[in-house]
């Protein structure tokens, strides 16, 4: 008997028939002899309606505490309906809201962090043979205020519950089959990975693969609970995200990702003296703008060029702040939002030299100019002109994945 | 400084603009120097949507526990939105769900009874000068399950909170101006009562006046908290429901009510022997059918006729059960759902003889036959043919209220 946590997103529970489908899947798992916790999001569309009401009554600036009270009704609705549907299939189930579940978070409304889960009630439900139907996305702070975890919080809820219970697996049901070597819509030869390590998944997710929330992968990594990303439409195996030791083959490159949601800002001819970086980045930080890549090069004339990227949604604001800072520094500012970040990710990079070199060569052969480079232990990212995105992704996938850095992991 | 509990129903919070209106009213009361608790229902229409979803997923028989989890989202939504709207008017407010409020009930899902209210959090909110925005209709049982109070539960929530806090008044905002001597749509001379006693209100409410839930009046009576029933559309005084001692004049008849939602079943020629009543009423009780009036008369031939009334919605079922019972008793059954119950209610009846007699004479003068009679200390009810409802109500109102049993209470 295994302890399985299953997570279904808003689309999977988007209407009564879909909720019934989820109920069938859950009951099948339970009847196969497993203890089952199912974690759900608000029905698709529900959250949009709640957000609209909150923006209306809050006049564009809803009170964070009350906004959480409002949004939390979405998942509460789903858990009640799913528990009913499971009952109609003749299986016991009990719904648990964030506070009933003992999902304790800090008091940061709208983006709360999980602190601990009191598993007493969950275990009691499971021990009596019932399915625990838990509300994703929501928690409760020490003063018994309702909190929500922010965007994609339901993945995090599910994984956190799995970690707290020491579950055998956390299954994330989604509208894709699993994690692919790259975007299959862009590269038809993209293959589903059977297994991937937490660290690889973190790089893939944060780089735009968008299958799993970064926070949930971090949780799973810390507690060593495997995540199984799989389709909610059929029962074939998806992709297991596991500890590095459990990934049998270490591919040099297991994935090629892209992100077109960043923009680039360059300071030219900045005097190279202490405190300059602070004068550039402090205003951005105060404005809550997250800077991703930063590159600095010393010029021969004693000035320096500094380039960084920001989310494209913050670009206009960041550019204005940059221009203000540049005026004080006697520097010039350029901006470009027609860029893309292309990354190759793979555990095997740690042991294989020359991946960066090969990557640059592949791009050069296609005539693609590299504007910025950033590297980590298992990832190399470059910034290129946006219009070359598809070409770059295909060429790198061909070179590293299809041709095989080593033997690629095969997938059924 | 007074402590005021205000209750607004689903229509009063039916859309964003109405919620903003309620917020303005609440803030006015607070700025006039009062501590304010506001208790709200789900937005009009919201509950219907939730009921439909629950019936769908529950296939007509939703799990009671989960049904409560589902329905409770309705009020949770309203409290969040109202608290936001109050914030936008520059006043502090905090929403409290049933469990945050400490609204402890028994475990009878869908029709829970309030056991106690832990006022600690409520007092803390009020003490810091904020408005407490509490969810009506919902509570939490000893095992931290969400419960709901059943139909009209929000009135009961509001009054219970007022009682627990020892509030100076519980204001019930509604779409009528107050409690009238009879239905103004039926009798244009009907007058709004300035004050009415709890007991009179109980008889009025349970007899079909439908302004206040019976349970909430019982609560207010037990704790001696006055209820002020008033319009949500303007600020004129409505009707105060208070202790008998606080009702200055004791009208012989303060109201004439009618109820067309009952049906009548008669057993003819029942042998008059012990145990017969049980054989008639036990099956009804087992079917959850509430019997209202019961009249029995001994005939000269040693058999008896037994007549009782049931809600018209249960009539078909009750008639079938009665026929089954009659077969075993060798009796005959007749039914009639074209009846009305007309009642006169008044504290002064206790001291004035002859009210019943006068009532029967008034009806006789109009040629209305009385089928059943039932009396209490402050009420006389008769069953008549339904088609005479308006005629009976007008005649009785003319005789007792307009003509004045004593000096009628005047109302501004």
Helicity level of chain A, as a percent range?
Answer: 25-40%
Q: Could you report the average pLDDT of chain A, rounded to the nearest whole number?
A: 91
Gap between N and C termini of chain A: 26 Å
Most residues in contact: chain pair? A-B, 39 and 39 residues
Oligomer: homodimer
Q: Strand tally of chain A, please?
A: 20
Largest sheet of chain A: 8 strands, mixed
The CATH topology assignment of the domain at 3-174 in chain A is Carbamate kinase
CATH C-level label of the domain at 3-174 in chain A: Alpha Beta
Q: How much is the radius of gyration of chain A in Å?
A: 23 Å
Describe this structure in words.
The structure is a homodimer of 412-residue chains. Chain A has 412 residues and is α/β, with parallel strands linked by helices. Chain A has a domain at 3-174: Carbamate kinase (3-Layer(aba) Sandwich), CATH 3.40.1160. Chain A is 37% helix and 25% strand. Chain A contains twelve helices and 20 strands. Chain A has helices at residues 16-31, 46-57, 64-88, 98-101, 120-127, 153-165, 198-209, 214-223, 276-286, 315-329, 355-365, 389-402; strands at 3-8, 35-40, 93-96, 103-105, 114-117, 131-135, 138-140, 146-148, 169-174, 195-197, 227-231, 239-242, 255-259, 262-271, 294-298, 303-311, 332-336, 339-345, 372-376, 379-385. In chain A, the strands form five sheets. The first copy, chain A, has an eight-stranded mixed sheet, sandwiched between helices. In chain A, a hairpin with a 7-residue loop joins strand 11 and strand 12. In chain A, helix 9 (276-286) packs antiparallel against helix 10. The longest helix of chain A has 25 residues, at 64-88. The first copy, chain A, is globular. The two termini of chain A are 26 Å apart. Mean pLDDT of chain A is 91; it is low at 405-412. Chains A and B meet through helix 1, helix 2 and helix 3 of A and helix 1, helix 2 and helix 3 of B.
């Amino acid at each position: 008997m295994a302890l399985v946590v299953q997570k279904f997103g808003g689309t999977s529970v988007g209407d009564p028939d879909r909720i019934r489908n989820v109920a069938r899947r859950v009951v099948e798992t339970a009847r196969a002899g497993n203890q089952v916790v199912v974690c759900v999001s608000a029905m698709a569309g529900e959250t949009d309606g709640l957000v609209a009401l909150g923006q209306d009554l809050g006049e564009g600036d809803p009170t964070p505490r009350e906004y959480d009270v409002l949004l939390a009704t979405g998942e509460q609705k789903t858990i009640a309906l799913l528990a009913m549907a499971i009952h109609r299939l003749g299986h016991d189930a009990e719904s648990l809201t964030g506070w009933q579940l003992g999902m304790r978070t800090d008091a940061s409304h709208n983006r709360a962090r999980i602190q601990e889960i009191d598993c007493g009630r969950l275990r009691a439900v499971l021990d009596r043979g019932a399915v625990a139907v838990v509300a994703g996305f929501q928690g409760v702070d020490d003063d018994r205020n309702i909190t929500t975890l922010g965007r994609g919080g339901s993945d995090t809820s599910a994984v956190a519950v799995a970690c707290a219970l020491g579950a055998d697996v956390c299954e994330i049901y989604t509208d894709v089959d699993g994690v692919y070597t790259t975007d299959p819509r862009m590269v038809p030869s993209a293959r589903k990975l059977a297994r991937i390590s937490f660290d690889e998944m973190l790089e893939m997710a944060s780089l735009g693969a968008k299958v799993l929330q970064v926070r949930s992968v971090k949780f799973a990594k810390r507690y060593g609970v495997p995540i199984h990303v799989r389709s909610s439409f059929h029962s074939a195996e998806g992709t297991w995200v596991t500890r590095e030791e459990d990934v049998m083959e270490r591919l040099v490159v297991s994935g090629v990702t892209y992100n077109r949601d960043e923009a680039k800002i360059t300071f030219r001819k900045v005097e190279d003296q202490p405190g300059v970086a602070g004068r550039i980045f402090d205003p951005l930080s105060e404005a809550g703008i997250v800077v991703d890549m930063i590159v600095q090069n010393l010029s021969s004339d004693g000035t320096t060029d500094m380039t960084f990227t920001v989310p494209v949604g913050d670009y206009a604001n960041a550019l204005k702040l940059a221009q203000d800072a540049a005026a004080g520094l006697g520097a010039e500012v350029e901006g470009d939002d027609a860029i893309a970040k292309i990354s190759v990710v793979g555990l095997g990079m740690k042991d294989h030299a020359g991946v960066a070199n090969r990557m640059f060569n592949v791009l050069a052969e296609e005539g693609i100019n590299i504007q910025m480079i950033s590297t980590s232990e298992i990832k190399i990212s470059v910034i290129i002109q946006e219009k070359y995105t598809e070409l770059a992704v295909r060429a790198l996938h061909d070179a590293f994945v299809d041709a095989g850095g080593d033997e690629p992991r095969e997938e059924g």
